[in-house]
Amino acid sequence: MSCVLKRPNRAQRRALLRHVEALATGGVKEEILDWAEKHVMFPHSDRSPVFRRDLAPWLNEPLRAFGAGKWRVVSMMGPVGFGKSTMIEVAASYIVGVDSGGTLIVGQSDDDVRAWADSRFMPMLRAMPATSVLMPRKRSEVRAASILFPHMPLYIGGANLNTLQSKSMRYVLLDEVWLFKAGMVREAFGRTHDRGNSVIFAVGQAGIIEDEHDTLHETTLKHEYGWTCPECDAWNTYDDEHLKYDLGARSEENQWNWTRLYNSARMRCPKCETEFADTQDNRRKLSASGSYQPVKSNPEPHRIGFHCHALAIWWVPWGKLLVERMRAVEANQAGNSIPLRIYEQKRKAKPWSDDDESPAIVVQASGYSVEQYRNGEKIDGEVLRALTVDKQKDHYWFVVRAHRADGSSMLLNAGTVREWSQIIELQKQYQTPPLCTMIDAGYDTSSVYAFCAKNGYLAMMGDQRKEWVHRQGRQQFRHFYSPMNRVQLSGMRASVVYWSNDRIKDILAKLWTGVLVPFEIPRDVVGVYAAHMTSERKREVFNRTTGEITRRWEQIKHRDNHLWDCECMQVAWSLMMRLLRVEENDSIQVDTPSE
Ligand SMILES: [Zn+2]
Predict the structure, then answer these.
(1) Are strands 382-391 and 437-440 parallel, antiparallel or unpaired?
(2) Cα(236) to centroid of ligand 1, in Å?
(3) Gap from CA of 304 to ligand 1 centroid (Å)
(4) Per-residue pLDDT averaged across 400-408, rounded?
(5) Residue extent(s) of CATH 3.40.50.300 domains in the chain
(6) At what angle do helices 445-455 and 420-429 cross, to 10 degrees?
């Protein structure tokens, strides 16, 4: 879409003439902060109806970088309430007033960003003399989705292909980029059509590692906002570690006295150890002494990034942040990582890493080796053994485990083979009964069924259900696995058992902690075993429809979980064989008649 210039009226012609004259006579355009202090008004704001560079000093450098004309990407990642809207409003009105060029403002959704434009941005453009004269006269030229100024078009829309396709823009302003769907930032770059003077301006809080904003931010020359110690002149980052408090705020019963903790917060200079009490005066003084310093990064040319911690936002008490963080740490230790994730993203403004939630499993080997049991040798007290297999495209992961009557077990071998035939060889080598040989049918289901039918093996599938009802005469039992299902296959029959992802994985995780029965592994277990065992973690999932938060096992990005799946099948099978008995104090009773 090309920019159609509308015929300007007299006032607009005068404004445009002044605009051109200023450029011609001055040679340099007015610097963005100077211009903003002279012209910008926020008619919607109670705190500050005008722009002042001393109010939120962490905004100044990113805005300067935006206005400098030297950077093609300017990224700002900051805590909630750092003044993100102010930044976009100042940048956008500067474009309209001084640095004209086709502009696209992109928010999470059409509704969000257009509501902002309606309630804040348009009233602002109309209130400021510098921009109001440039506002189009015709109603049809001012819409929620676009303003067709006489000297430039400005579009407003959500981060979707509809907004981000076809328009060619000099400026693309992106708001809350962490919420964008994958690929939307690439689309935004597409809009600049590789112009040499384009600018992508991305602002928002932090999301998760490798989301759209994090990925973009990582390509920039990163800067951190820090404060300068008035005593020793050292430049310090805003860091939770430098926030000190009274250890006495914790009682002998290990309970925090929250008020005492809150009131004891103070910032300590890590160089000279001077402490600054948590007063608004001190917080504002330190923040005003602040500046951005480059931190370690691997930038692409012409890209600059800024990061700022909530501790720099002087109107937020340090004590409040301290209590929030301590509560989050405690919740995390109790197994609920949501508050910590929120603190990291919204206060620290650091993308959350899935790795932060990986299970703390320490794989400790027992004193035996794979070699000792390679030829079908039995372990002490063995009653049954199982071979479980997870099929991939061109290879197979397997686990052989020997089980005792008390549910304890020893891993005999784990690894990969390349051919179907090698599974049969393994089964024979380890002398596993055919029905104790199980293959995950989640991938390439029909070939797995055919192979199982032919060899008398059992197909298995992980499932979202929590339990299944099993009937025995008049009695009903509930189990974490399904009754045997028969699948008819061109004259042969395969048997399939489904198992509950949620329950079985809970039990496997418990086996790992050693609170149930010994779950042993050999000292020379295959190297990737530990990595596979920590490939999944239980995560809170927010259900948008019901508003409920439930916990569910999920694979951690980029981690292979095949041996973990093989061990899950061993657990499901061990329950089926009545070897492993889930403790009575476990949340769900098993083997209890339901009537
Ligand atoms: Zn100092």
Answers:
(1) parallel
(2) 9
(3) 28
(4) 94
(5) 10-218
(6) 40
CB of 400 within 8 A of CB of 386?
A: yes
CATH architecture of the domain with range 370-576: 2-Layer Sandwich (3.30)
Secondary structure string (H, E, C) spanning 130-158 = HHHCCCCCCHHHECCCEEECCCCEEEEEE
Mean of all residue pLDDT scores within the chain: 88
Can you tell me whether residue 575 is helix, strand or coil?
helix
CB contact at 8 A, 213 and 177: yes
Gap from CA of 278 to ligand 1 centroid (Å): 16
| Bigger pLDDT: 310 vs 472 | 310
Alpha-carbon span 83 to 85, nearest angstrom = 6
Q: 387 forms bridges with which residues in the sheet?
A: 400, 437
Residues 44, 22: Cα–Cα separation, whole Å: 30
Q: Please give the distance, rounded to the nearest whole angstrom, from the Cα atom of residue 286 to the centre of ligand 1.
A: 11
| Cα 269 to ligand 1 centre (Å) | 5
Asked if pLDDT for residue 585 goes beyond 50, the answer is: no
Distance 223 CA to ligand 1 centre (A): 21
User: Ligand 1 centroid vs 272 CA: distance in angstroms?
Assistant: 4
59 CA to centre of ligand 1 in angstroms: 24
pLDDT digits (tens, 9 = 90+) for 294-340: 999 999 999 999 999 999 999 999 999 999 998 988 887 666 778 88
Beta strands in 490-535 (DSSP E): 492-500, 519-520
CB count, 10 Å around CB of 173?
27
Average pLDDT over residues 165-172: 87
- Ion ligand 1: residues, CB within 5 A, are 229, 231-232, 234, 269, 271-272
For residue 282, report the distance from its CA to the centre of ligand 1, in Å.
14
- Cα dihedral value 529, 482, 552, 573, nearest 10: -20
The Cα 319–Cα 323 span in angstroms is 6
- How many residues in total does the chain contain? 595
pLDDT at 570: 97
Q: Ligand 1 center to residue 235 CA distance, Å?
A: 8
Pairing of strands 485-489, 382-391: unpaired
| Global pTM exceeds 0.70 | no
| SS3 state at 351 | coil
Distance 292 CA to ligand 1 centre (A): 17
Please give the Cα distance from 213 to 185 (Å, whole number). Answer: 8
**Closest C-alpha among 476, 398, 394 to residue 437:** 398
Quote the pLDDT of residue 27.
Answer: 53
CATH among 3.40.50.300, 3.40.50.200, 1.20.120.790, 3.30.1490.100 for 10-218 = 3.40.50.300
Domain with CATH 3.30.420 in the chain: 370-576
Q: pLDDT class for 164, splitting at 50, 70, 90?
A: confident
pLDDT for position 545: 60
Closest CA to 294 of 220, 402, 187, 345: 220
Cα(283) to centroid of ligand 1, in Å?
A: 15
Q: Structure tokens of 242?
A: 């430098």
pLDDT at 586: 37
| Strands laid side by side in the 437-440 sheet | 485-489, 492-500, 458-463, 437-440, 382-391, 396-404, 409-417, 519-520
